[in-house]
């Protein structure tokens, strides 16, 4: 059963994760002015790594990431707020609208592949550190 405290931890974590994503995006946007959406890409890949790493470190199954206040606040809240599937899709749509459809497909494929590899690496490193 979900308690009000669980909701508070997810909300607090989600707010902090979203603020971190916003700040990293601003920082990256101030330094890079190219076409490829590197900010969103790096946010999602790093988030995939950290979520996998902490999931193994916390010894939880993916279905249990909502279970305890720590899991809910960190994995679902903060890291869920930090990573951004919707922004990735928006970036791809913007690339397509600007006539860069091939780059949009490459970006989506690279994002999924790099995120998966980052998650595998994060899980592997966490297993090594146990």
Structural class call reads: mainly alpha
Q: Identify the overall geometry.
A: globular
Uncertain runs:
none
Query: Element order, helices and strands?
Result: HHHHH
Kindly estimate the percentage of residues that lie in beta strands according to DSSP: under 5%
Averaging pLDDT over every residue, what do you get?
A: 92
Biggest sheet character:
none
Radius of gyration: 16 Å
Give a short overview:
The chain has 130 residues and is mainly alpha-helical. The chain is built from five helices and no strands.
How are the SSEs placed, and which strands pair?
Blueprint (H helix, E strand, L loop, with lengths): L3 H28 L6 H20 L11 H14 L2 H13 L3 H29 L1
Helix pairs in contact: 1-2, 1-3, 2-3, 2-5, 4-5
Describe the protein.
Helix content is 80%, strand content 0%. With 130 residues, the protein is mostly helical. Helix 1 packs antiparallel against helix 2 and helix 4 packs antiparallel against helix 5 (101-129). The longest helix has 29 residues, at 101-129. The protein is globular and about 50 Å long. It starts with a helix and ends with a helix. The model has no long low-confidence stretch (mean pLDDT 92).
Key features?
mainly alpha; about 130 residues; 5 helices
């Amino acid at each position: 059963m979900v308690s009000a405290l669980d909701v508070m931890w997810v909300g607090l974590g989600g707010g902090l994760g979203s603020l971190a994503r916003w700040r990293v995006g601003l920082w990256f946007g101030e330094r890079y002015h190219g076409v490829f959406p590197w900010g969103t890409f790096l946010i999602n890949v790093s988030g995939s790594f950290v979520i996998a790493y902490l999931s193994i470190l916390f010894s939880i199954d993916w279905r249990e990431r909502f279970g305890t206040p720590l899991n809910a606040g960190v994995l679902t809240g903060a890291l869920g707020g930090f990573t951004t599937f919707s922004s990735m899709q928006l970036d791809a749509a913007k690339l397509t609208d600007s006539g860069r459809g091939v780059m949009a497909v490459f970006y989506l494929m690279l994002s999924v592949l790099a995120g998966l590899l980052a998650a595998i690496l994060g899980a592997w490193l966490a297993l090594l550190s146990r």
